[in-house]
Design goal:
This protein has 313 residues and is of the alpha+beta class. Helix content is 49%, strand content 12%. The chain has helices at residues 10-22, 30-41, 56-72, 89-108, 124-129, 135-157, 175-196, 206-218, 220-226, 273-280, 297-308, and strands at 82-84, 87-88, 165-168, 171-174, 235-241, 246-251, 267-272, 292-295. Strands 6-5-7-8 form a four-stranded mixed beta sheet. Strands 1-2 form a two-stranded antiparallel sheet. It has a two-stranded antiparallel sheet with strand order 3-4. The radius of gyration is 25 Å and the shape is globular.
Length: 313
Amino acid sequence: MTETRRHVEPLEELQFALAEGDAIHPPKGLVQTVLDAALATRAAGRPVHEPPPISEFEAFRRAVASLDRLLESLDAEQWRLPALRDLDVQGLVGHLTGVERGFLASLHEPDGAQADADHVASTDAVALAQGGRSPAETLRHWQVAAAETLGALSEAETSSHLDETVALHGLRLPLGPMLVVRTFELWTHEEDIRRATARPLQAPDAASLRLMTELAVAMLPSGMRRADRDAGGRCARIVLTGPGGGTWQRDLGSTPDDSRSRGPADVRIVLDAVDFCRLVANRVDPAALATVVDGDHALAQDLFVGAASLALD
């Protein structure tokens, strides 16, 4: 005896009856036709509203301008608030001034003392020197250092030096990727200051964020090696949502310039693009993130540890 499905609402019953009456088997090739049409609309792994691309130089300029606006808005008391490690906001800006001086030196002298200097220790003297200065003086020193860097970069942007390796604080990268690292750092420390002064956090613009996520995903294998987490030749599918996000199939044992994997993913990780960048900056606990993990959860945890190890602080 056939059981008849009943619904409380007559209209609902009618909708099911009409649906069953119109249901047919899809014609052969329909699935492929739909996929072809979808891929023709946009490339796989790209958001529908992908931001217009910008250069690494422009991303760095925007990061400098954003931090400058924030620092200009601080009052005298806010400059004295604890910000990072044992530094107050003023000391943190001193740290950034020290980094800026080292970066400028790297543009003129690639193999100078800054190439292998410790990122924190090499700037300690400049950071601590801010204690005897007024906030206005500290701000002026940082603005001068940033302006000198931007001036040097404007020359490099129109020259043949774009692919030359820059060495700074143990990192050796072409100038373009190094500028994305610097963009990442300025944004991270801007958020440190926002947290210290109880201000809302601010995501990078979508175009800058896109450059940051691209580089961070590419460097995940390096981060996992730095954290002594063995990926064992496995790969991850990483889906970063929101503006500036995307989808990557990443071989976790490969070099940073090889972002594709030939095999199936061992784990799939889905999280917000900005949250991912905060994880890479070591500013958030992975357990506190709204993350979807399918597959090898232990590998996902190793990946999170590796991501956080990329932070310079």
